[in-house]
Amino acid sequence: MLNVGKIENGIVLDHIRAGRSMSIYHHLELNKMDCPVAIIKNARSNAMGKKDILKIETDADSINLDVVAFIDPDLTVNIIKGGELVEKKRLPIPREVKNVIQCNNPRCITTVEQGVQHMFYLADPRRKIYRCRYCDERYTEQDNEW
Prior knowledge:
Radius of gyration: 17 Å
Low-confidence stretches: none
Helix content: 10-25%
Number of domains: 2
Largest sheet: 5 strands, antiparallel
CATH architecture of the largest domain: 2-Layer Sandwich
Structural class: mainly beta
Strand content: 35-45%
Order of helices and strands: EHEEHEEEHEEE
Number of helices: 3
């Protein structure tokens, strides 16, 4: 059995779909932060079979939870203070995401011009369909392999 110590202050992202923790790590740019991070991949889970877990010892406000909710809207966010769980929550699906996915339209300004942010807005919350802010190109979860 793998044993990873508890954190004093920070967040624990639990119930991440197996295989998505590295994508969350990458998009949150945790490699650029000077804080302890524990990545647990393919942990046993009664409910999910397998799951990933991320433990990040940093102020919860320094983490972009919209990115987290976009990559895996079903995960659980646990806020830890003084070594104790103070809040456990599920995240709503974000209304807008920036620089997480890219537009596939070859005529979109994000493809033609360098330095333009890739921005998508939530067009259909029920089916989790996003559209490019510039050209209205459609994006669904099936378009991306995390």
